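job 3f2a | input accepted
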Amino acid sequence: MKKENEKLVFSLISLIIGIVALTISWVPLINNIAALFAIIGIILGLIAIILNRKHKKTIAIVGLVISILSFVIVLATQASYANAIDKAFNSSSSSKNNASLINSSKSKKATTSEKQSTPQEKAELGLQGNELARMKTAITYLKSSHLSKQDLYDQLTSEYGSKMTAEETNDVINKLDPLINWNNLAVLSAKSYRDSSYLTGQGLYDQLTSEYGSNFTAEQGQYAVEHIDDDVKSADIWN
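job 3f2a | predicted structure (239 res):
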């Protein structure tokens, strides 16, 4: 009787350990312990079956089956968790790579856009409606008449010109000023005076700088006289 009880103990222990292993086999990390319990349960279940080969082995078989099931569940859940972690990591890496590619693409587009923008496009950038119309008017005057900054102001505000307000005119000129090569405009104006009025030297300088002439600054007038034979064209009014 005592030996039978001892044999039954292996079966009961296998069953209990198998149940414990099955209970925690679903829990991440802790199911590592469940795997260990399952292995012990399997070993004890096999021992119980061998010891009870001539007696009822129901408890031992149940304990063995539960332990094997627990071990299988542990393997399945750990594989599932590992797969989920890999997917999350790959998704994060993919998102970062995509963001990097998008930023790189935007940067390249911005750089390309900047390289391809002409000075006139820069002057007109962001302008709409009346603001854009005023800017185009000023640029047309500069291209066709080669005006100085003061003459451009007078032409834009004149009642015989564009009749802009002082504020509107100043906004236009302030945007244009850093983009315009006023020295080259003075040279173009000097060429016109020489071709039409045959002015040279001091007479040309006086006409370029006079308030009744072109209103260029003294420096611009002097530059024009000295560089009148340079190959300057209307396209060269931009910096």
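job 3f2a | The longest helix spans residues 58-116.
job 3f2a | closed
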